[in-house]
Amino acid sequence: MVTCPHKTVRRQSVPLLLGLVKCFSEAGRYRMYQGLLRSTGHAGVLELLIHSIKNEIDQALKVGKESLFVGSNPVLFLDRVMSISSDMDLMKESNRVMAILNFLRYLLIRDTPQDNQVRPW
Questions:
Q1: Between 20 and 30 A from 113 (CA), which of 17, 52, 74, 120?
Q2: pTM of the model
């Protein structure tokens, strides 16, 4: 969907992907995010996934119940996405880098050292 030459198809694929992920239970969404993060290399798709994971964490923190998106789980599977090498093209990967920095900023602001629910500290 990402490499489709038709702009309308690419734009329609975003809500389709997000709707597909929302069809699953929490455990299914967690595994779906893991698989998508592992299989995709496109910076725009990674940006969308990181943003969706941030929303899942925010929802879990607002509800206050035990969740796969709270604890050390999110940081563990985002470890692959957060790796930045010295030989990468920053212009090509700028969406991914900015999404990662925004996600980390959100975690540090939202989850204080006293609470430490997502364990970024």
A1: 52
A2: 0.80
